[in-house]
User: What shape does this take?
Amino acid sequence: MSDGGAPTPEKGKLALYWAASCGGCEIAVLGIDDKVLKVAEAFDIVLWPCVMDGKVRDIEKMPDKSIDLCLFNGAIRTSEQEYMAQLLRRKSKVLVAFGSCAAEGCIPALANMNTREEIFQTAYHDTPSTDNPDGVRPQIETEVPEGTLHLPLFYDTVKTLGQSVEVDYYLPGCPPEPDRIWDALVAILTGQLPAPGSVIGATTTVCDTCPRTRNEKKIKEFKRTWEIIPDPDTCLLEQGVVCCGIATRAGCGALCPTVGSPCIGCYGPNEGVVDFGARMMTALASVIDSQDPDEIDRIIQEGIPDPIGSFYRFGLANSLLRRKALAHNGDGRVAEPA
Amino acid sequence: MSESAFEPKIVGFLCNWCSYRAADLAGTARMKYEPNIRIIRVMCSGRVDPTFVLKALSLGADGVMLAGCHPGECHYIEQNYKTIRRFKMLKHTLRALGIEEERVRLQWASAGEGALLASAINEMVDQVRELGPLYWPGNWADNEGSQDAIQALPREHAEAMEVPA
Amino acid sequence: MTEKVGVYICHCGTNIAGPVDVEEVARWAKENLDGVVLARDYRFMCSSLGQELIQEDIKNEGLTRVVVAACSPHLHEKTFRTACSKIGLNPYLTQMASIREQVSWVTEDRAAATHKAKMMVAGAVRRVQLQEELQPTEVPVNPNTLVVGGGIAGIQAALELADAGHKVFMVEREPSIGGHMAQFDKTFPTLDCAACILTPKMSDVGLHENIELLSYAEVDSLSGFVGNFDVRVRKKARYIDEDACTGCGICIEKCPKKVVDEVFEAGLGYRKAVYRPFPQAIPKFPVIDRDTCIYFERGTCKACEKFCPTEAIDFEQTDTYLDLNVGNVIMATGYDLFDCGKIPQYGYGRLANVFTSLEFERLCNAAGPTEGHILLRDGVTEPQSVGIIHCVGSRDKQHHAYCSAVCCMSALKFGHLVMEKTGAEVYSFYIDMRPLHKNYEEFYDRLLQEGMHFIRGRVAEVTDAARLPGEDGKLIIQAEDTLIGKQRRIPVDMVILLGALQPRFDAKETGLKFGVSAGLDGWFTERHPKLDPVATMTDGVFIAGTCQGPKDIPDSVAQGAAAAARVQGMISKGTVLIEPIVATIEEARCSGCRICNTLCPFNAIEYLEDKAVSYINPALCKGCGTCVAACPAQAISGAHFTNDQIFAEMEGLLYDVIGSNGATVKSPQPALEPA
Amino acid sequence: MRYGYYPGCSLTGTARPYEVSTKAIAGPLGLTFEEVEDWNCCGATEYMSLNKTAAYALVARNLALAAGEDKPKDLVAPCSLCYLNLRKTNHYMAKYKSLGKMTNQALAAGGLHYTPGSLNVRHLIDVIVNDVGYEALGARVTRPLTGLRVAPYYGCLLVRPDLNGGSFDDTEYPTHLDRLMETLGAEVVDFPLKTHCCGGHMTQISAETAYELIRRLLHNAAEYRADLLVTLCPMCQFNLDAYQTQVNRHLGTDFHLPILYFTQMIGLAMGMEPKALAIGQEIVSAASVLRKIGTAVEVEEAPQTRRKRDDKSLPMPRIREG
Assistant: This one.
């Protein structure tokens, strides 16, 4: 560290890293306001690319497990991000998947509905704003007179942090609410932590904190948000709006439904759930008010035109199937069974 | 794997009251059917969480069959209507993920319909055999060349350190 | 895994050991499956020696989990559970793999069969290690019983219980008990007069100190669970004060309004607006029919009130509700007759002299509209020839595929009555004669002797369009006589249609109310078609008589008595064990979203307003798991069918796809090269 | 309402009046018929029993020609034979995949293809009673057929076979034509032989048999004092009309029962001139019975069915609706 002076021996070391994500998590850290000073009291920050200069090689040189806490936000989209995840895992005592991208893939992982080839085709060729007459594409290796330049490998499938390395704790949210961040930091600092591998958060869902009145549910028609001016006091789902609050872990304080906007599921699934989308699918389907297969089909097709966007907006990478089928997976099995 | 050697693995979820008894009946009547299905007993087709289907596919199953009492005939009165709804919803999502129709099937079979269940299993096995392996884990296991690229990085960093600032 | 699993592979003689290499399966399981401490194969696991083998191993080897790969769990799950519990292992820590029904009997290739058996054993082994000890709960049984429906089945059930000293509430929709049997004239094959054998039983019910008869009443709602049901009964307004009425019948005599009696007289006779369906009605109190009473129509008349000697008429009466507590319920809600007008080619409703079986019963009945004279619709002419058509709406894929069971015998009975009373020629058009109970075949033989004509063939049509000499003014029955292979046209004066027995028009609704499921054809479903014919899926709710399926009087009576015996068993035991395979909601995880609230047809799920969470009443839960699968927060778990148990079973079943570690294939994690 | 229209051979020949009257009423009822271009024979009743493959291909050609994105989805056939053949082919091609495949192979030779189920094959009367509806039809009646006793004759092919619930009325005892005639104001006879055989092509094979079948129908209608029979099938109309004289001569009867198409009756009730409906082209002239409408014919009041004191008769069963 160049600016903090010599670290006092009792101070811990903190690293924050940013992989495939929007940067919102970085800002969310600042959302804890003046409590950030308490963080500074407790830790020396050894890596925080967003805020201060630092070199990866400095981290590489550190002994293993010499970082006390690493808050890692962002999903794993490239080989460089995976390398950093592995590096920080090795150097950190506690690695936290910070925010939805690291925890479950989030918006970057919606790219799993496409292949690398499709993404490159769009990004480097098809978009109207692209001017690329030579059809240049990023290469992993480029020879220049000075030597070989490297770019990270762009993966076909976005992964979560947990799918790349072992994660100690997960802090969900897009981004995590400042209060929850502080709660987690307090828990980490005081050592009052749940079992490794678990999520630091509530064990119930958004409905628990939602002020709207809930009744028995029967849905004849799903509505998109622009099709309805919802009644301010009744459960949005009962009004036909696909609200993910039923399945989404509490922690946000039901910010969206409180102001009439349905929950989109950024806090991820509740404790113990393996597939967020499955919970939404089964819950919504269960309360469709029809016994006629054709009508049920119609209600679903018309009401939920984009099931992945509706049910896996934040969790596609972390879902059981993780992505859309790759065309080339069909014939050749990747691994032979034993 | 050569095409002729491919034998699909199909997981079946059968309700205790109708379809599992149909499987019993198919057995008692010595009706031969394809050995590719492996059956899990649930009390009602209404117990079949979409997660089960996704889990089976993610584990590498080539297809999943849900079987229950005919609509209107459920031993729990009307729970299989919920199965229809969830099945339709799940298929909607599976379609979006590029999974072929034939791989996930809902089959009604009452306790007396052993032959129907057996022929449905045969039909499904044939269909899935024709589609070929699904082997879903293969979809995310192939970020090809990632290990090389990852391992190149520390080398590069080490080299970079040699360069005077 | 710390569990010690014992695996037992049954040979079932050669049933399994023939097509499956059982030794190989046992060897493989022992070598490859985590947690398996021993794996044995044995000739007959279900034999007492087989069971002892397991018990010895539990005792000596300290097994904590048992897997038996044998026949279907529907056959021997109970056997092995009991064997284990006898030696102190909780019965829910056993698991079966159905390698007979699902493998050896259905698989041709031995290698494939052996492989599939291994996978199924792997599934059971992985699952059983996650299974948990479960204990059934014990609840007391209220000794009172509700009998719904006062036909012969309900009457029998009520009397059996009441005679044994138990309190019975009988709810009957019509003004009198008696059901369809009270409408009949004679009963086959003995030709006993129906009224003569029924009315004593009816009055027994009316007078019995242990029976509280609630006639002209319907069950409004049923809640609670086996041993402890809460019933709400709606007593429809009779407009007669039952305490004051003596049943003298003057009101009926004086009532000026005559209407067609669609129920008791099957539309063939008339009754007054204030009426008793028939003279021997139990209870004796009449009912004022609000829909046809002149007073309710126009506000004047009140003739009944003027003449009633005890001032029992009360036009101000309203429906009242009664709350009862009972331990068990017997449903004997009966059947409806098929609407014969749905087969228009048989002419019912178009051709005057086409009658239904129920109409004919009334025609024949001495207390009926013609005082027992068999007459054509003009009310004067005796028929000289009568055609009886079987299977009208039964054994007909357009209507009901099933056989209505009673029509063949009714036809014989009708034939006999017609010949006896009128001397007319009788032609029966049947598909198959099915006189299949005691003395029935003999009765058929008797009718053959008596000269009834039997024509084997489905009737094409009944028409008044005469074509041949002798057909003018007659009803012509056209049918193919399949025994002689010819079309026949039989001109007759009267046609009797033996309409199908079909479920009550509101059976579905009733089933929902009582938590009883129905088959596709609408009859209530018994718990087991052979071994548990009067119990239903809802513990404490039994079915008897024709609500379960078409049957004749002896069968209905037998079922009524059987249901009563089952109830008595429950009462004498005093308590019931509630199956522990139920769903529970973990309060801390429930957010009270209320998705599950509408999903339970047994009303086991309630929403606790104060805690803002949902709650499952374990006594009402039947363990189907639908709510478990629906909960978006995964706050509900289903005992013995948890997600983890099912995932584990799946991983075992896919052992050959995912290998022994059970983990989904991940991209390999190479060790990092140090910088 | 747009419909594909398959007239079939009869309507261009012996059943001209059917086509003329159909076209006459179509406009006022808001029906637009688009005739299938280059249609061919449906194979009638015989071809199916001679060579199934060829027969199905023959019918399917018409379906292929009638189907298309820009074409109406409903294909209307006024002739019961054509209707049955088209309907059957549409149904069986879907039900029996091999048949569908084979038929399409045959069609492919002519560069055609038909996806079974892409058309709804419908009979003209189905369209009129269900799409136009009794109510709308009743509203257009300006000259009610009051006083005419009409025997509705459906023939055997209209509602049979059921083809998995595909019939639009009861397969044994249909009633829509009855109700249609009532809507037009006619007095409808409950004609028991309404779906019995008209003889079909037996007139060509065994005239005796055909005469007897025709006699039964005429006899029964006469028994019921019908003024005329109303049909919806060219074959029925032709047999009953054209052979009536022969039946009379052969069997010594004396029937004079005009046979008209239901479309002609609708036209009359809507106030159209008989000539515009090709009435007068029938062999057994309808002129005399039709005098009943429009002229001041006394309608007999039906006697009140009040129950007399000494009347011992039993009530008739109530017929439940639906």
Observations:
- The beta strands of chain A are 12-18, 43-47, 67-73, 76-78, 92-98, 141-144, 147-150, 154-159, 169-171, 198-199.
- Residues 248 and 269 of chain A are 5 Å apart (CA to CA).
- Confidence is low (pLDDT under 50) at residues 1-8, 330-338 of chain A.
